[in-house]
Amino acid sequence: MTKDMNFIDGLLGQMTLEEKIGQLNLVTPGGETLTGTVVNTDVAEKIRTGRIGGIFGVKSAEAVRVFQDLAQETRLKIPLMFAEDVIHGQKTIFPLPLALAASWDMDLVRATARVAAREAASIGIDQVYSPMIDVCRDPRWGRIAESPGEDPFLASRFAEAMVEGYQNNDLSHPDAVMACLKHFCGYGGGMGGRDYDAVDLSPATLHDVVLPPFVAGMRAGAGSIMASFNTLNGVPMHANRAVITELFREKLGFGGLVVADYTGILELIAHGVAADRADAARLGLTAGVDMDMVSETYLETLEDSVGAGLIKEAEITAACRRVLEAKLKLGLFDDPYHRLDWGRSAQPILTAANRQLAREAVAAATVVLKNDGNLLPLPAPESGKIGTIALVGPFALDRVNMNGTWAVAASPSTVVPIADGLREAVGNAVSVLTAKGANIVDELWLASRLNVHDWKDLSVVIDVRSPEAMIAEAVATASSADVTVAVVGEAREYSGESSSRSDLSIPEPQKKLLRALKATGKPLVVVVMTGRPLVLAEEALLADALLVAWFGGTEIGHGLADVLFGKSEPSGRLPATFPYSLGQVPITYSHRPTGRPAPGRFQKFTSGYVDLPDDVPQNDGLYPFGFGLGYGTVAYGPPRAVRTELAGEDRLDVTVTVTNLGDRPTLETVQLYIGDPVASVSRPVKELKAFRKLALAPRVAEAVSFTVTAADLDFSVAETVTDTRRRLEGGAFDIHVGPNSRDTQAVRVVWNEPKIEGKRS
Ligand code: NOJ
Question: Quick one: CA dihedral 538, 137, 35, 405, positive or negative?
């Protein structure tokens, strides 16, 4: 980068008010994937006349070049900045973000973001609208698919890894793209699990649960953030000066660019806080939203508002400066075409190495929930132990759903379907018979909603055959096989934006299929495609082996075959609780205790559900956060603390011995949680504070050590959203270690009079 901040000062000095406002206008040219109902018009003309600063949703290098050429016709030749929704890959699609978080492998997460950055940059993309780091404890919300799940610590590590992968420590490099932390903030807690809905949060929960991933992403250097659609305690985030400017910028030190979400500024009218477009624009700019996405209210009204004395030109100049600074960091003032030129020679799209990483990511993300009698891995194809596999279900041959939601630039044609992957893995040794068995859903109205992007390919195709005929075919296929692999679940657009569900089950036609398959008496492997935690209580009874494969992306076929035959160890651990029943949501392992905690089973006058059976955990869900099995058998010893009395800034080493009792190598994710049994406020029963994913050779015991410091013990005492005070209280702490958030063993330590009082976020 040769140009510096002085250059920006000089440029700003030459700009008219109109030109500055033009830089704040962020548009999409329309066509292809839209995420709102408004589309910008006359984009080319507006660029040529200096009324656009950035564009998103441009899908080809040729189009990027054409638009950038137009910007070079303007008086000051300020380059455009191009953005895209690169959420879990650009052309090589990796498992969904929720699935990548399930890997608990941050090197892998970073590597996927690196690949995504290179692929996107090669067609001229400068900024990606990712990572999405909204902590979410309500799986009805479809956007949990895009998030790292329910836990702020895991989400924070995910945020850092994604930012590092995208930006690679040097945004001016042509193969780096600017990360955009989103959605700022609180969006994961919408009322009723509905998208775009109101969020009410205590200031302390905001600071302890919602903000940590944003702070972590900011500290990792994220260049931008995106405001969220929700209100937070009554104030829409696009008008929330307290949280965006006073808290995140001024107190926590964020120095980057803030973009609006799609028509988020205009929606201030619908939220009931702005009277008209001018009012909305004024509120958005004053809150600290630098770029107005799609609404064009800034473009239309800000100049008049300055004239009328409602806004100071200095506020527009400050926002414009941040846009120009982002472009400077991205190296665009030195050469607006450098990503395009690099991409043409580097050709980094869908390379064999990219595909290999996507394949490995499938195994790392797949969570085994049940594996009775070690049904998995299936015997090696050449062993002769199985002759026929029945691959059944609406996803067996599918390409369109496999990328999951938010794969806007990818094509289903590059996907390896599950049937192809299995057939490749078994060669001629085993025959793989397929049967659809059921529609994803039977209702036409629902299918048409799920086919929202049907200008491309249909993801839900209702078969011409009757449901009964399809089940009969599947049963006949399963009856002639040695083992059945049923792939069932949600369509890709069942999760994602505007895809909240009021029911968390596998759709009924597929449940009927599973019941019929169970009745064949053949061993049944159930593979679940999903973008959210589902209620799998019945499937857990029907299946001999139950796997959550999420949506695995381009290499799902190969990756799943690797898992089924044990070529790769499935090593995913749930990033969010899978509830036992819908009524348990919102749900998290990290809940506060109640005055009447439920024992394991229902008991009158304790906190539980009168209509849940006794053998069901009342408030912990069916499968807890952090849960997942490997193919090995791993035993945990009790955690050992070097000492149990500590003070001030001591460091505590906690060690646990983890033993692979099996005769195959395995991967285990050791998790450390802390509980604070007595404090001035009721603290969550457990909070994740550390984890380590390790490879264990057969019959090997390994001592795993973690270091706990006083910084792991504090909590927010915020009374307002801008209050960053934290408190660290001395006393007893339980250090829990185990394979998931439920099955932990603990050691109690006493931390005396920690001296870090009044610390800030
Ligand atoms: C709306 C979504 O909320 C956001 O995540 C996305 O980046 C924008 N649309 C742009 O497509």
Answer: negative
- CA 428/CA 248 separation, integer angstroms: 59
Domain 352-583 class in CATH: alpha beta
CA–centroid distance, 591 to ligand 1, in Å, is: 30
- Token pair 């940590």 is at which residue? 212
pTM over 0.90: yes
Partners of 736 in the beta sheet?
Answer: 673, 746
Active-site entry in 138, 261, 442, 723: 261
* CA 35 – ligand 1 centroid, Å: 6
Q: What is the pLDDT of residues 585-616, one digit of tens each?
A: 999 999 999 999 888 788 899 998 999 988 88
5-346, CATH topology level: TIM Barrel (3.20.20)
Instruction: Report whether the peptide linkage leading into residue 131 is cis, meaning its omega lies within 30 degrees of zero.
Output: yes
**Is position 261 annotated as part of the catalytic site?**
yes
Name all residues whose Cβ lies below 6 A of ligand 1.
35, 85, 129, 182, 261-262, 497
> Cis omega (within 30 of 0) on the bond before 185?
yes
DSSP secondary structure letter of residue 571 = -
Over residues 406-461, the pLDDT tens digits come to 999 999 999 999 999 999 999 999 999 999 999 999 999 999 999 988 667 899 99
Q: Say which CATH topology domain 634-752 has.
A: Immunoglobulin-like (2.60.40)
Would 5-346 and 634-752 be classified into the same CATH topology?
A: no
- Tally of CB atoms within 10 A around 169: 10
| C-beta of residue 237 within 8 angstroms of C-beta of residue 258 | no
Q: Residue by residue, what is the 3-state secondary structure of 349-379?
A: CCCHHHHHHHHHHHHHHCEEEEEHHHCCCCC
Per-residue buried b or exposed e for 282-312, using 16+ beta carbons within 10 Å of the residue's own CB: bbbbbbbbbbbbbbbbbbbbbbebbeeeebe
Domain ranges of the chain: 5-346, 352-583, 634-752
Centroid of ligand 1 to alpha carbon of 84 (angstroms): 9
